[in-house]
Design goal:
It is a single chain. This protein is mainly alpha-helical. It folds into 3 domains: 150 residues, HUPs (Rossmann fold, 3-Layer(aba) Sandwich); 151 residues, Rossmann fold (3-Layer(aba) Sandwich), CATH 3.40.50.620; 142 residues, Arc Repressor Mutant, subunit A (Orthogonal Bundle), CATH 1.10.10.350. Helices cover 46% and strands 10% of the residues. It contains 19 helices and 12 strands. The strands form 5 sheets. Strands 1-2-3 form a 3-stranded parallel β-sheet, with helices on one face. It has a 3-stranded antiparallel β-sheet with strand order 4-5-8. The protein has a two-stranded antiparallel ribbon with strand order 6-7. Helix 1 crosses helix 10, helix 9 crosses helix 11 and helix 16 crosses helix 17. The radius of gyration is 32 Å and the shape is elongated. The structure holds one RNA strand of 75 nucleotides.
RNA sequence: GGCUCCAUCAUCUAAUGGUUAGGAUUUCAGAUUUUCAUUCUGGUCAUAGGGGUUCAAAUCCCCUUGGAGUCACCA
C-alpha cells in the first residue's frame, strides 16, 4: 500500500478577481498568499478573471491586474482564464444538472420575485425563493425566459471546514434557497462558475477574503451536485481602514499601482502585506525567499487587521537604505531622475538614501541638491543668515578657491574645518548660512557631500548668489 | 433584522493552561549629527466586561458588550 502524505500532493491555488478597474491592495494580499502557498509546494498559481457579468465587463481591468502583478513580481501559471470565454462549459454543466434532475427551470418573472421578496421583508421573514417551480412538470408559460435554479438541500446543515476559521456550520434553513445558476439570458452566475472552475482547474486550496465565507455553502452545494471533490478553504480576514470598516476606494490608496507612483518598492509592499494577519515569531523583515520558505495559510490569524501605512513607510525606508545604488538609480528613473551618467552618482545616492521614506521623496531631495535654490525664504534667512554670516561665507569661498584637488566629501570637510579653526567659530556658524546658500533651507544632507556632488564652481556660484542677493 | 465571523498596547502581532504578557511600528525622552534624517539607548502604552472550569486562564466553556462580513437574474 502506498501512503501519500497530503502535503506532498500538487497544490493549485488561484486568484480570481472580478475586473473592476485595477488591482486592489486587499486583492494583492490574497493573491500573494495564494502565490506563496502554491510556489512553496511547487504547485500552480492560476489567474482567472471573473467576468461573467457582461454589463460590468472591463477589458482594461484585466490588463491592469497583469501590470500590477508584473510590478510586484507575482507570476501566474498558464494562460489567464477568462470566464467570459468559458460559457459553453458552464452551459454544459448546467445542462448536466438539469438532465439529472438536480436543477430545474424556473419561469417566475423577475417582477414577481421582487414582489415576493418585498412581502417577505415586510412580514420580517427571510427573503427567499418559494420553490414554486421545483417540481414543475406542466407546460411552461408563454413568452417567459426561464432561469435555472439548483436544487439546494431543504434541511440540515452545511459545514465549511476552513483552514483559518475552523469548522463553520451553516443551517440550511437560515441561508439557502434554490439559488439561480443561470440567468434568463443564459449566462451563469458567480457561485456556480466559481465552483465549476475551481473544480475543473484542479484548485486544491482556495485562499480568499473572508467576505466569501458566507458564499461557500452555496458553492459546496454546486460541488456536491456535480460530484466534485471539495478543495481546502482558507478565508483570510479582511483588511480594515482606520474606522474599522472594509477597505474601500474612499480610503485613499487602494490601487496597487498607486504605490509605485508614490515611490514604494514591491519588496516593502509585499513584506507589509504578508505581515497583516500572519507572522513568524518576532521577525518583521521577510524577503521573498523567506516568505516562500515560511508562509503557511494554516498560520493565518482569525481576526481582521487595520491598514496602517506607518509600518509600510518604515519597511520602505528599510529597503531603500539597503538597496544598491545601481538599483536605486534604475528605480529613480520612474520618478524623473536620470543619474546614469552623473559622475557623482555614488556620493549623491549615499547622501540621500537614508533620508527618504519613498523614492518620490528621494527624487525631491535629489532635485534640491542638483538644482540651485530659486529663491530664499525670508523666515529661513532670518533664522540662519545672521549679520556675521556673509563674512564667514566669503572666507569660506576664498578658502575653497585656494584649495586644490577637491573631490570627496572629506576634502570639502577639511576646508570647512580649517575655516572654522581659523575664524575660531563653531561649525554651526558656517553650517547654517552655507546650507541656505546651497539648498535654500535649514535641513538636508551633509554639506560636504552636497559640495562634492555639485563641485567647487557650483558651490561658489551658489554662495555668491546668496551673498549678492 | 437573519446568518456567520472576530476581540492582547494607538497600530501590526508573540506567548505547549504556569512569562515581571515579548517584539515591531508610532510616540516621548536622551545620545550621536554643523542641520534634518539615519543610527543607538531608554521610557509610556494592552489581555473589552461578567461569570464559570482549574492548584493555576490572555489561553478552555457560557453570557454580555462591541466590531466586522454577508444576505441579488453583482462578483
Amino acid at each position: 500500500m502506498i501512503i501519500v502524505k497530503k502535503d506532498l500532493l500538487m497544490v493549485v491555488t488561484r486568484f480570481a478577481p472580478s475586473p473592476t478597474g485595477y488591482l486592489h491592495i486587499g486583492g494583492l494580499r490574497t493573491a500573494l498568499l495564494s502565490y506563496l502557498w502554491a510556489r512553496r509546494n511547487g504547485g500552480k498559481f492560476i489567474l482567472r478573471i471573473e467576468d461573467t457579468d457582461f454589463s460590468r465587463n472591463d477589458e482594461a481591468a484585466a490588463l491592469a491586474i497583469v501590470e500590477a502583478f508584473k510590478w510586484v513580481g507575482l507570476e501566474h501559471d498558464g494562460v489567464i482564464e477568462y470566464q467570459s470565454s468559458r460559457l459553453a462549459i458552464y452551459q454544459e454543466y448546467a445542462q448536466k444538472l438539469l438532465d439529472e434532475g438536480k436543477a430545474y427551470k424556473c419561469y417566475m418573472p423577475k417582477e414577481a420575485l421582487d414582489k415576493l421578496r418585498e412581502e417577505q421583508v415586510a412580514s420580517k421573514e427571510r427573503a427567499k425563493y418559494d420553490n414554486r417551480y421545483r417540481d414543475f412538470t406542466g407546460t411552461p408559460p408563454e413568452g417567459c425566459e426561464a432561469v435555472i435554479r439548483i436544487k439546494a438541500p431543504l434541511e440540515g446543515s452545511i459545514t465549511v471546514h476552513d483552514g483559518v476559521k475552523g469548522d463553520v456550520v451553516f443551517n440550511v434553513a437560515d441561508i439557502l434557497d434554490d439559488f439561480i445558476i443561470a440567468r434568463a439570458d443564459g449566462t451563469p452566475t458567480y457561485n456556480f462558475v466559481v465552483a465549476v472552475d475551481d473544480a475543473l482547474m484542479g484548485v486544491t486550496d482556495v485562499i480568499r477574503g473572508d467576505d466569501h465565507l458566507s458564499n461557500t455553502p452555496k458553492q459546496i452545494v454546486v460541488y456536491n451536485a456535480l460530484g466534485f471533490p471539495l478543495p481546502k478553504f482558507f478565508h483570510v480576514p479582511m483588511i480594515h481602514n482606520s474606522e474599522g470598516k472594509k477597505l474601500s476606494k474612499r480610503d485613499g490608496a487602494t490601487d496597487v499601482m498607486m504605490y509605485k507612483t508614490m515611490g514604494y518598492t514591491p519588496e516593502a509592499l509585499l513584506n507589509f502585506l504578508v505581515r497583516l494577519g500572519w507572522s513568524h515569531g518576532d521577525q518583521e523583515i521577510f524577503s521573498m525567499a523567506e516568505m516562500l520558505e515560511l508562509f503557511d495559510p494554516r498560520d493565518i490569524n482569525r481576526s481582521a487587521s487595520v491598514y496602517n501605512t506607518e509600518k509600510l513607510d518604515w519597511l520602505n525606508s528599510h529597503y531603500l537604505k539597503n538597496m544598491s545604488n545601481e538599483k536605486l538609480c534604475e528605480l529613480l528613473e520612474f520618478h524623473g531622475v536620470m543619474l546614469i551618467s552623473h559622475d557623482k552618482r555614488e556620493i549623491l545616492l549615499d547622501a540621500v538614501k537614508e533620508r527618504a521614506k519613498t523614492l518620490a521623496e528621494m527624487a525631491i531631495l535629489i532635485g534640491e541638491i542638483l538644482v540651485a535654490p530659486a529663491e530664499f525664504d525670508e523666515a529661513v534667512l532670518k533664522k540662519g543668515y545672521k549679520e556675521e554670516s556673509r563674512a564667514i561665507l566669503e572666507a569660506f569661498a576664498l578658502a575653497l578657491q585656494n584649495a586644490s584637488e577637491l573631490h570627496l566629501p572629506s576634502d570639502y570637510h577639511h576646508v570647512m574645518e580649517s575655516v572654522v579653526a581659523q575664524l575660531e567659530i563653531g561649525f554651526g556658524k558656517i553650517g547654517q548660512p552655507l546650507r541656505i546658500a546651497l539648498l535654500g533651507k535649514l535641513s538636508g544632507p551633509g554639506l560636504d557631500s552636497v559640495m562634492a556632488i555639485i563641485g567647487v564652481e557650483e558651490t561658489l556660484a551658489r554662495i555668491n548668489t546668496l551673498i549678492q542677493r
